[in-house]
Each structure stands twice: as C-alpha cells, then as structure tokens.
Amino acid sequence: MQNDRSFRPRIPPFDLVLFGGTGDLSLRKVLPAMLRRDIDGQLDPATRILACSLDHHDAVAYRALVGAALEGVRDEVCATTEQWDRFLARLSHDHVDATAPDGARGFAEALHAHPDRVRVFYLATSPSLYGTISQALAQLGLVTPDSRVVLEKPLGRDLPTSKAIHDAVAAVFHEDQVYRMDHYLGKETVQNLMALRFANALFEPMWNATYVDHVQITVAESLGIGHRAAYYDRFGAVRDMLQNHLLQLVCLLAMEPPGVFDAASVRAKKLEVLRALRPKGPDDVLRDCVFGQYGPGAIGGDRVAGYLDEPGVADESHTETFVAARVFVDTWRWAGVPFYLRTGKRLEHRASEIVVRFKAVPHVIFPDQAHQVVANQLVLRLQPLEGIKLVLMTKTPGPGGIRLRPAALNLGYAETFKTPLPDAYERLLLDTAKGNQTLFMGRDEVEAAWSWVDPILQAWEGSDRPPIRYAAGTWGPSAAYGLIERDGRSWVEPGETFG
Q1: Number of domains, the chain
Q2: Rounded-to-integer distance, Cα 65 and Cα 68, Å
Q3: Does residue 60 sit in helix, strand or coil?
Q4: In 3-state terms, what secondary structure has residue 277?
Q5: N or C: more exposed end of the chain, with fewer CB within 10 A?
Q6: pTM (predicted TM-score)
Q7: What CATH number has the domain bearing residue 136?
C-alpha cells in the first residue's frame, strides 16, 4: 500500500509558539514531530515556529542547537539539504522571561504581524509557570479567539494543585482553547481501539462482562529516571503514569459508544468511566495495589544502578517507580470485571500492551484435549511494533485426530500498511492547529482522575511503608504476581513479535 497523501492535507499557516524551546521535551518530541510533518508536506510554507526560553540565543545560534539535537532525525527523514534548510528557516528564538513580559515586546511584534493566524502556545515548561505564562500572553494582547494553549503533564500533584493550575489558565483561555496533552491518546493503536470497537460488529456485542473475564494493561519502560530526579522523586509512578496514561486507556476500553466521534461526545463517555471507578479506601489500597522501587540489576546485559543510587535521589526515598493495581469500573457493562494495571521503570524491556481476556468456552467437547483449551484473548500492542493480535484455538494440522493448540491472527501495522506510522506528537500537534480536541483530555477528566487517585496516594504515602524492591531487568516485584494470581489469573508478559 502506497503512502496516500490525500489523507494528510496541508494545514493552513499557523504559528507554533514554543515556550521552553531549548528544553528536552522540545528538542526530543515537539521539533522532531514538526520536522516530520514538514517533510510529509503538511506544513504550509508560511507556518512559523517561534521558540522562547531563558537562553540568549539568536536565530542562527538556535538553529545550530536544533541541528545538533535533531541530527539523527534529519538523517532519517530529509532526502535533500533543501528540505532541512526549509525547516530551519521556520525557526526563530527569543529570550523571554514569563515573569517579566515587558521584555518580550519583540516576540509579541512577530505575532502581531499576523493577527488573523492560528496561534498554538505550547507550554513545554514547568506546570508552575502555566498560569504566569498565560497571564503574560494576555498582558501582551496575544490571546486571540484563534489561539490555543497546549499543557503537558503533570497537571498538579493532587486535586487541589490541579485545580489551581486549571483556574490560572482558565483566567485567560476558554476551555475550548485548552489542549491537555496525553501522548498515549495520539498513538495509532490507541486510536485503532476506537475503530476496533465501534466499526466492527464482531467485537462490540462481546465487549462486556458477559464475555470478558478480565483486562490487563502493561506500560513497561526499560529506562530509569535519567536526569529527571528533581521531578520524579517528587511525583513517582502513580502521579506520572497511573493518573493519566493508564486511566485514559481504561476509559477508551470501558466507555460506552459515543453518538458521534467528536471531542464533546468522546470526553463525556470517558468522564462517565472515571466517575464509575470503584473508590479505594486505605484497606483496599493495601489489598489491591503494589508499590515497588527498582534496585540494581541488568538491562540488555548491562549492569544498571538502583533507584536510590541515581543522581539526585534522596538516600531514603520511598518514591515508587512501579505500581500495579486491580481496578473495577462499576457500570452495567463491566460489573465484576477486574482491570489489572501495571507500569514501572527499569523493567525487562520497553513495551506497552493491552490484553482483553475473554471467558472460557462453557463446555469442551474434546475431552482428551480439555487441558489444551485456553480462553481467547485480544492483544493490542501500543509500542514498539504496533499491532493487534487475536489468539484463537485451532486444530494442529495432520492425521491422528483432533489436537488443539492456540494460534494467533496478527495484524502488524508496519507490515500491513507499508508506511511509517506517525508519532503521537505529530498527530496531536496538527490536531491542535486544526482545532480538534478529540484526542485531548478535558478538565473534568483530569480532575475526576485525581479524585480517584488522591485516596490511593494518601493511603500509600500515609502508611510509611517502603516500596518493595525489585531487581532492574525483571517485570517488577513478586507481589505484583500475587495481586493477579490470587484471583486465579496470571499476567501476559509482553514481548511477542507482531507482523
């Protein structure tokens, strides 16, 4: 299948204003995404990227910085130097201190030169600055009806701090101008979950407690915290992953069908799921959650340090780098069906998968093969090697009667569609420019998630229990296996190849 550009129309010219333009997020995610969309022909020649930071770079120095940071991406996607030069020409940089907006007059003049153009203000900064930056933009007269603001997590450490951030931004931007980024919602397989459920009569009738035994979600990272100790040691795995990424995946799996596929309808159905999550009291947290912290171990044959030995981590830190939880969605559709969630750092390898395990057949008509019959399961691989796998029972070919074994129907995206899959940031950035909020979180969603997570954090942090140590390079603490095995189930370890 050839790459069909008719599905990737050029976006009208817009200005991407990138606060924190010299930071890690901008250089690793935002700018590479914009480069790829430029090479694919989706950026109008007049689209500009105006970077802002506390650094005193002129345009030439900033382009050199970006060139060094994006060298690998440039070599991968740029067929000619003209393509790279075209992208660099979009870039400018201004020294901007959001706490002193009077010093940003030159930056403001560049935007005022195109007053009718869509403006995307991407705040790749500390969330503590979101309100300050928003207020500065208002003081400079830069917030127009066609302005949008992109907020990255973490949107607070709990419900009160999240509300404070939202209130500060809402003093300047209307809710329909606010785009809360969760890059998991931009992944192709996550979006394909919607197509799988709502465009196929095969699955939707079985997507309920009558046929589904349980659901597993694993988001595993092999990396440690790197140079993010200042952030991570204050937040941990519950705030960094469970409150947002994992709960958003639960929403897409458990939501009722929206009337139409638009932002308001999808958000309303996701909010219903978040409000239906069974609350957890202190005893529930101790029974249904496992908190771990990686120790020394080996990843890919290389020795790696434990969390307490990472630079910048407090010597006696109790910050969790792993969490597993058993969750229930108390709705008619999902009554009694457990959702098992786990995420952690320094696990065996990087992989994100969703497993929907169906109930076993009520009666096996092959008595001598009963021990071979396993329940059907649907596996959605989010990363790497995105794809979908359906495990069925089949007869082994050959004479000798019925011999059963499980086999998989694989849909590997790369092999099936013969085209590179866009990165989540590529899709979400252009959705922002187009004014499409469907794949972004609403304020009500974020606050509903915090309302459910806060009691878990209070019980965990108030228990004064240390997290369970697990060796780097494993799948986490053994207690996480006990969490699911005491229900007579077991984790499906990610790692099988798709396609």
Answers
A1: 2
A2: 5
A3: helix
A4: strand
A5: N
A6: 0.92
A7: 3.40.50.720
